[in-house]
Design brief:
The protein is of the alpha+beta class and 319 residues long. The chain has helices at residues 15-32, 80-98, 114-118, 129-139, 145-155, 165-174, 176-187, 195-206, 212-223, 238-251, 257-263, 300-313; strands at 54-59, 64-68, 74-75, 162-163, 208-210, 268-270, 275-280, 284-289. The strands form two sheets. A five-stranded antiparallel beta sheet has the order 2-1-8-7-6. It binds glutamic acid (GLU).
């Protein structure tokens, strides 16, 4: 047997059928790319081709089904927030992490400062910029970028992941809002590390070059309870996987997380580079790439493809 995990339950067995459905999901996603626009607030991201689209789906039965631009490298952006939180949970534990960041959705944009200044000194959750920066301040005391890069490569089962220097410099030059967040956290006395080092690490992690396959692998590892299905090696503790996937479901799609939960219902995380990573328990890891974003900053094509796939295969966790 190829994998060390159990066979998934309750999913279509005919590979031809799966290929047909995921092909249709790809077409649905590709058609939606026309409705979005690429991110431009980080100048380097504006160079992306909004017509590109790809989906890679891997399941625990050992099948990989991919359509479109699935080998194209792009910056992981906010999907790195899952990696950062996973690293914090691994190295600092649940209490050591959540003593400094909350677990609540905000209903605000990913880079909002509003609630941080008016409602709570601690950031609402680790999936928004303020929370991810706070988590990074914790990590900045115990781990450096090279170690985080190794962690990301292992999590995504992708040794080719590199820092995209152009995106990193572009972010560092224009990331004043994130610098505002880190200094606001410092002014409140809650930041746990050096502000400049923290935000630099945050920018670097946002600038990792992944592809749809690396994101599918990330989702697959989470779907498999934190164990790499190819090697049988445990990467993330089971209780940490539950935390990561819960926060992905409630907070992973910015202020579109509620609607995404209703229509798609797959714990997922998006990034403004155009990626979405989805994880279906004991079944699928799904990665999509489509840099044309909707008005909430989520990949227009990615949402459409994941919604199609979820509905056609009955993957909504509440279904
Ligand atoms: N690097 C981006 C920022 O901090 C990440 C945003 C995202 O993907 O949501 O603005």
């Amino acid at each position: 047997m190829l994998f060390t995990c159990e066979q998934p339950e309750g999913q279509a067995r005919d590979p031809g059928e799966l290929e047909r459905i995921i092909g249709q999901a790809y077409e649905a996603g590709r058609a939606r790319t026309q409705t979005g626009t690429v991110a431009s607030y980080i100048p380097e991201l504006a160079k992306a081709d909004g017509r590109e689209f790809g989906i890679c789906a891997r399941n625990l039965a050992g099948e990989t089904i991919a359509f479109g631009d699935t080998e194209k490298r792009f910056s992981i952006q906010s999907i790195s927030k899952v990696l950062n939180l996973a690293a914090a949970l691994t190295f600092l534990g649940v209490r050591g992490t959540f003593a400094h960041v909350r677990m609540e959705p905000t209903g605000d944009a990913f880079n909002s400062i509003l609630k941080l200044d008016t409602v709570s000194d601690l950031p609402f959750n680790p999936m928004i910029n303020a929370g991810a920066i706070q988590v990074m301040s914790l990590l900045s005391n115990i781990i450096d970028f090279e170690q985080l890069l190794c962690f990301a490569r292992a999590f995504c089962m992708d040794e080719q992941i590199q820092l995209n220097e152009a995106v990193y410099h572009s972010e560092a030059e224009t990331g004043d809002r994130n610098r505002a967040i880190v200094y606001l956290l410092k002014s409140k006395g809650v930041l746990q590390g050096d502000p400049d080092k923290t935000v630099d690490l945050y920018f670097r992690m946002c600038s990792l070059n992944v592809n749809a396959r690396s994101l599918a692998n990330m989702g697959l590892l989470l779907a498999n309870g934190g164990v790499n299905p190819f090697t049988g090696q445990r990467m993330i503790q089971t209780d940490h996987v539950r935390i990561l996937r819960s926060l992905m479901l409630t907070c992973g799609l910015y202020d579109e997380s509620g609607a995404y939960g209703v229509w798609v219902g797959i714990p997922s995380k998006s990034g403004v580079g155009g990626g979405i990573m989805g994880s279906v328990t004991r079944q699928w890891g799904i990665g999509t790439y489509g840099p044309a974003l909707n008005e909430k900053g989520n990949s227009a094509g990615g949402i459409a493809a994941l919604r199609y796939m979820s509905q056609a295969l009955g993957l909504n966790i509440f279904a």
